[in-house]
Fold:
Amino acid sequence: MNSFKGLLAPYNQGDYFCELLGLSNGESVNPKALKSIIGRLDKLNLKALRKRASAAERELYNLGITFTVYTDSQAIDRILPFDVVPRVISAEDFDTIDRGVKQRVAAINAFLKDIYHDQKIIKDGIVPKHLVVGNENYCKKMEGVDIPGDTYVHICGIDIVRDIDGKFKVLEDNARTPSGVSYVVENRHLMLRTFPDLFKGVGVKRVSDYGLRLYQALADVAPKGATEDPTIVLLSPGVYNSAYFEHVFIAREMGVPLVEGGDLMTENNIVYMKTAGGQERVDVIYRRIGDDFLDPKAFRKDSMLGVPGLFEAYKRGNVTLANAIGTGVADDKAIYAYMPRIIKYYLDEEAILDNVDTFICGEEEGLKYTLDNIDKLVVKPVGEAGGYGVLVGPRATKAELDQRRQELKDDPSNYISQPVVGLSVCPTLVQNGIEPRHVDLRPFAVTGKSTWVLPGGLTRVALTKGSLIVNSSQGGGSKDTWVLEK
Amino acid sequence: MKNSLLARFAQNTFWLARYVERADSLARLLEVTETHSRDEHGDQDWELILEVNGDVAQFKKRYKKVTAADVIRFYSIDRENSGSLVNSVAFARENARSLRHLISTEMWSQINVMHSTVGVLKNKDIQARRLAGLCATIKESCQAHTGITEATLYRDQAYYFYWIGKMVERADQASRILDVGFSRSKKLGYKDENAGENLSHWTGLLRSIGGYQAYRRTHPIRLRAQEVTGFILLNDAFPRSVMYCIKETREYMAELIDQHGVETAKDALITLKDIEKQLSEVDIHKLIDSDLHEFADTLQQQLTTFTQALAEGCFGKS
Structure:
């Protein structure tokens, strides 16, 4: 099956592309550094590997790299399961991702600028009007609002998968408040401490300057009139939010205050934070709160998390919000289907990273195709995140298929469908030793005046055998992602 | 570079320090009561701790009799007692959690580990034979926390609020421990001149605030109520004396205002100066003859007033 004699001997990648070994027919030519990593992994002993893995988990727990689950009586800290076998990306492959992500972010920003101003793309008939202005994430209040540098999406996470032929494909854009970057950096630190021997003599691009890059990008888009050293804050829903650790992480890495709505106030359309010595003006807010909750005066009136008057201050250009308000329309699963055309329209380029073929069930043809081929397709609700409501046709029971058919007929525009992608696998430490598990990749792009892509990104792994759903809420874990130096 | 501290974080650092200090004091109080406070019949007086802390009513609501086991439980692992050890550590951690991006990873990780250690304590862990070991562990954890803080916390406003919180709590706890010791000696009818029979009582008291050696260095001969009281209340150089803590607080407050421009702390400073003045005018002879409990009580109330003034000025509570 393979030529390994140690840990990897029983490993069988099946028909899938393997992130360490390459194509299933064995025709991939791996870079030298990757070969030496694989060789070292093979020489590890399973028992010793498990020992190191459990030490690593213990450390995550002690460092509080956790999310908190609240029950009636107590708060339980859980770690995101961490797999110690790294996922490795060659310099060449990452170059494709880097260019592809930058292109996509540029197109998304141009699209948002356009739909909130002239709406040329609608007038030119590229994207149907109802998908934009009829979208529940479209924010009418943002029409005509100008923002610094025309940057709407400062932080973008783009979910990428790899098909059986090793080709990267974009599965989803995340242009609201994508999370997971803290795990990228913390996973690396953990690996450097627990597996120094694996890194020896192997050039891996560093990930630790994310905070610095983000700070610089946000300083770039400070409002006109802010000082050279603008005051930047991170706005979090607070300690009870499940992503609180990530908020802590980013605030710490940027060296900025981690504020909650109650720490901020507005006066004469200027945003201030309440400090021990009085009020201090705030220039840029990296907010990890959804649009609806940002300002009870402008959006949801029952929001306890936001800052009254924030939108007015924003509209007048007295404060910058990252990401901008109303970006959710761009990462919608229905708009996603148009992304190759959106890229072509604004940038006059072909998409570097392909989409997965997508059928829009809100359109007659798409619905018909989906209903006829439901057993071969993945059917996803448009508005859900976290892997909820996803039906994988080939794995579904007849009853599940029938139920989804009915749901499709009842509310077609709530769904899209895609062919099943044979997600790539990566060797992963599980109960029976090292086995293949499906992975995806979420690179993070940071945009101020220009765009920078964090080398690597978050590799999520579906720990359940055969599962294609990598979300942490559905039994997913994460891996360290190594981008090799050239 | 601006380095303003959010009002909420000023409050969090202040209380982080207080709760860790409180946990440390509680461990000391439990340990010393368990080991050094037996009377001539070999019995311990646990009710006294409840009295001094004003916890008698709360305790009796849920426990039938005042037994050593139940008082220890009440102050260690009882989650319904907001002043218990497990809650002090939990509150300290909650405050640290809000401060995670400001404090060092080492500070957070240490308190996180302490919290998981204390959080799983069961009845069997607080049995008499294990109590001393447990108290020692807690004290060490609190000291490790203080050491890591000293070595890693950046000296900006946060550090000042941290230190002020620590000193205020320490002054408060010192006055309580003194109060316990004093009331006990009164109950047992110890006369001041009769050092022989109550020697272990006063050394126990000194040990409970870690001051036995320091006391011996300054008072090689005498060990009487008046010297011990004077030492715990007024000594300038002993870091757990009330006076030392108040002076330290005052200095940090002054620097916070003068060097960090936190003008909003001025009202609190005034209340603190009142406390200092009062302390410096204390006549120890008169105090031990009259009512030390009342004095300690007043001091604790004044520290509460100080904390309120600080909260109004700096914690965004106005």
Q: What stands out?
A: The CA atoms of residues 385 and 471 of chain A lie 9 Å apart. Chain A touches chain B through 26 residues (CB under 8 Å). The first helix of chain A runs from residue 32 to 43.
